[in-house]
Amino acid sequence: MQNKMIQNLEANTGKSLAQWIDIVRAESLEKHGQMIKFLKEKHGFTHGFANLVAHKARQSDAGSASDTDQLIDQQYKGKEHFRPLYDALLSQIAQFGEDVEVAPKKAYVSLRRKKQFAILKPATKSRFEIGLNLKGETASGRLEEITSKNAMCSHQIKLSADDSPDEEIIQWLKMAYDKS
């Protein structure tokens, strides 16, 4: 999927990923959000392409990491109490189908099929977030709509360390998977 996106980036912009990385690095931007904003505002990028270039420029995506397990271990440093929840969620999600791609980033894990359908993120020491791409769905139960225009997901579920992946959570994840 990412290779296709890289091909489309060059086809749409006339510049290769390497050229865009050089452009972003020449701006001396350090934060991921700054890079995305720059690419969207100055070059008319969509969020997806801006996110791809920012991750590659910062080497913060699974494809740039030599050890993706290390990315996950870093996410849970100081938040180890959320690791069993993450592992339980992945175990349930793996049952959706063999086409689930688990793509760790520095701060979260992206779950993709044809496109991203969810993210798993130990957000703080007291909150774990599941981001879901469920555009058009009405929020109910534990599902909340995300109102930010720049959000990678349309909805989220916030959990504490005491929570487990109950039937409602798995149903929302499965719906997002089916829509992707």
Order of helices and strands: HHHHHHEEEEEEH
- End-to-end gap: 13 Å
Question: What form results from the Cα inertia axes?
Answer: globular
Report the radius of gyration as a whole number of Å. 17 Å
Find the count of extended strands (DSSP E, 2+ residues). Answer: 6
Helix coverage percent: 40-55%
Unreliably modeled segments: none
Explain this structure.
With 180 residues, this protein is α+β, with helices and mostly antiparallel strands. It is built from seven helices and six strands; from the N terminus they run ααααααββββββα. It has a six-stranded antiparallel beta sheet with strand order 1-2-3-4-6-5. α2 packs across α4 and α3 (32-43) crosses α4 (47-58).
